[in-house]
Specification:
This protein is α/β, with parallel strands linked by helices and 279 residues long. Helix 1 crosses helix 10 and helix 8 crosses helix 9. The longest helix is centred in the first third of the chain and has 19 residues. It is globular. It starts with 17 loop residues before the first strand and ends in a 7-residue tail after the last helix. The site of S-adenosylmethionine has 18 residues, from strand 5.
């Protein structure tokens, strides 16, 4: 099933990256979580903000086909009760411009979107400035999707910086990709991703107990998030490549509130049961 909400054509001349068929699992989760979160929080908060720091171009084409699908930023807009504000950050200007064009074409001026060009890890202050200020009589809550593709693209310090606000995170943890390949090498990719050199000693100890890297890492990363107060959530099942069935990544959800956990469980349930996908 294509996540196009019944739309017949997403054709345009703009950049349209190729994605594997397996990306649709990610798209179902992000769509469902956005829908559940935004509707449930509508009357409880004065401003709900969607933040997508690795936003991409808004539309992708499924590899080996001509089928186009909406991707994370467009899916977060493709819900009944829209967020009050959207913040889309992207390193590649061509993709960001394509996204802006697509959003404007589809929603004209009906949504509040801020586009930020740059390396998400280097412009956290700008991102924080874009989030409406939480103040007396004006409560702000955000949902942030981090879809870095590779571990080297995301620093834990970025999460730490955003975590000074009320924000829940959905993070693509690329555990079987560049991280898995470098786990025995003394380089900085994992250290940057987890924000601590301590992972090496912990991994050494886990290896001695015959614990597999993926099991070790998901638990370790969860502990790192717990150190920021994110005690609720959990991971999706392993997402695998459709052709070779190779493991690729897991999506980790992290919230400081038990309600976040409840939404996550619902989003996962509806993402499996594809008949309940749309409003
Ligand atoms: C896997 S794509 C995800 C796109 C989108 N989230 C989706 O649903 O398909 C990752 C995107 O992050 C961008 N990117 C990579 N490193 C980045 C960084 N440090 N800051 C911002 N964007 C980055 C890439 O250009 C790419 O468009």
């Amino acid at each position: 099933m294509s996540i196009t909400n019944g739309e017949k054509s997403l054709d345009d001349e703009l950049i349209t990256p190729h994605v594997g068929l397996w990306a649709e699992k990610k798209y179902r989760l992000i769509h469902n979580y956005s829908r559940i979160f935004s509707t449930s929080m509508k009357k409880k908060w004065d401003a709900r903000v969607y933040i997508d720091l690795f936003a991409g171009a808004g539309i992708s084409v499924i590899q080996g086909t001509s089928r186009k699908v909406l991707t994370s930023p467009m899916l977060s807009l493709d819900i009944r009760d829209k967020f009050d504000k959207y913040i889309f950050c992207e390193l590649d200007k061509v993709k960001l411009d394509a996204l802006q064009h697509r959003v404007e074409k589809r929603y004209s001026n009906t949504v509040d979107v801020q586009y930020i060009h740059g390396d998400a890890n280097l412009i956290t202050e700008k991102i924080l400035e874009s989030i409406p200020t939480f103040r007396k009589g004006f409560k702000v809550i955000s949902f942030c999707f981090l879809d870095p593709l590779k571990a080297k693209n995301l620093s834990f310090s970025t999460i730490e910086a955003l975590s000074i606000t009320y924000v829940d995170f959905l993070i693509l943890v690329p555990i079987y990709m560049d991280m898995n390949r470098t786990k025995n090498i003394d380089n900085k990719i994992i250290e940057k991703f987890v924000g601590s050199p301590d992972w090496r000693d912990q991994w050494k100890a886990a290896k001695e107990k015959n614990i597999a890297f993926d099991i070790f890492f998901t638990e370790y990363y969860q502990k790192r998030m717990e150190s920021l107060g994110y005690c609720h959530g959990g991971y999706s099942e392993i997402v695998r490549s459709t052709n070779k069935n190779l493991p690729l990544y897991r999506l980790g959800f992290f919230s400081r509130h038990p309600l976040g956990q409840k939404f996550w469980e619902e989003a996962k349930k509806y993402s499996t049961d594809q008949t309940n996908l749309f409003d």
